[in-house]
Design a protein that fits this description.
It comes from Domibacillus iocasae. The structure is a single chain. Helices cover 30% and strands 31% of the residues. It is of the alpha+beta class. The chain has one domain (21-63, 73-143): Roll (Nuclear Transport Factor 2, Chain: A). The strands form two sheets. It has a three-stranded antiparallel sheet. Strands 1-2 form a two-stranded antiparallel ribbon. The chain is elongated.
C-alpha cells in the first residue's frame, strides 16, 4: 500500500525536441471579451493568446491594479495627458513605451515598424510584433 497518490507521467518520444518557444505558445489562457470586459470560458493559445496579451498590456495602466505584477501594463496614460510635452515628444515616447509594455513576454521576439500619426487629441499607432509563431499587426488609437 502506497502512502503517496499515484501520479501518471506522460512519456515523451526521445526523438521529439521540445523547445521553450513551442511550450510557451501551447500554453492556454482564457479568452477575454474586450466588449464586455469579462473572461469567457473559451481557451486560446498561440498567436491568439499573444494578440490578447498585447491588447491587454496596452489597456492596463502599469501599477494601477495590485492584482497585476509590475511588468504588466503600460505607462502611456501619464505621458499622453501631460500638457507640458509636445506632440512630437509624445510620438517619440509612444514607440518606447509600447515596446516596454510588451517586449518582456517570452513569446515576443521583436516589436517594430511603428507608424504614428497625430490627429487632433489622439495618436494613431500601428506596429508589428514578431513572435515565435509568426507576425501580428496592430493598429491602436491612443489618447489621454
Amino acid at each position: 500500500m502506497a502512502l503517496t497518490p499515484e501520479v501518471i507521467i506522460e512519456e515523451i518520444d526521445a526523438n521529439e525536441e521540445l523547445s521553450l518557444e513551442r511550450i510557451l505558445l501551447e500554453q492556454k489562457t482564457y479568452r477575454f471579451n474586450f466588449e464586455t470586459g469579462r473572461l469567457t470560458s473559451e481557451l486560446i493559445s498561440g498567436l491568439e493568446a499573444v494578440r490578447q496579451f498585447v491588447m491587454m498590456a496596452l489597456r492596463i495602466p502599469r501599477y494601477a491594479h495590485s492584482i497585476y505584477s509590475a511588468d504588466t501594463g503600460n505607462e502611456l496614460g501619464e505621458m499622453l495627458s501631460d500638457p507640458d510635452t509636445t506632440p512630437e515628444y509624445k510620438m517619440m515616447e509612444i514607440e518606447r513605451l509600447v515596446t516596454e509594455a510588451i517586449i518582456y513576454d517570452e513569446r515576443i521576439n521583436r516589436v517594430h515598424s511603428f507608424e504614428i500619426r497625430h490627429m487632433e487629441d489622439a495618436f494613431h499607432v500601428s506596429f508589428i510584433v514578431d513572435t515565435a509563431a509568426g507576425e501580428l499587426g496592430f493598429e491602436e488609437v491612443l489618447s489621454a
